[in-house]
Amino acid sequence: MIRVVLVDDQTLVRSGIRGLLELTPDIRVVAEAADGAGAPGVIAAAQADVLLLDVRMPEVSGIELLQREGAALPPTILLTTFDDDAALFDGMRAGARGFLLKDISLERLADGIRSVAAGATLFRPALTERTRASYERSSSEIGPAPAAALTGRETEILALMAAGFNNAEIAAALGPSEGTIKNHVSSILAKLGVRDRVRAVLRGLEMGCI
In the chain, which end has fewer C-beta atoms inside a 10 angstrom radius, N or C? Predict the structure, then answer.
């Protein structure tokens, strides 16, 4: 069972998401918080596998909570709207594993939670074009793009990483072994000058690779 903590200041949103996840056989909301200020204690007590975190809340926002608590939080998915592009990048830099829209279907919500619980990132292609423009406005914080160019296969794998696929799923989609995909991912991180998959996706957006 995947244990989820839900932090959102809107009661109807929390109720709706909890109700949807009750329809799945393997995911349950085990704790909730209505604001970022009270969330750390709730999260710590719940020992959850995934945190669903609203980007914008009064007093302490989801972004601020990520920045303050960092590694103490479980793998985190930001809950957002299309108007939250700038906040999304702040959250991703603070350690979020991805984001989902609040009007998402049950199937995609559940798949996203499962992916993040398994160690994947979750940056859906449907949002790539919009987020790319926003990221280009803030790319100076990451620095200049590296000279090393990605190969065609590496670019393909980076796009699948941005879509939230883990190494095993990428291997199933493209054909090579999981070990080969892992080697490609390591090469991508080295060429882009980043230390993890989230920053690789950000760099790919900056460079226009995805």
Answer: N
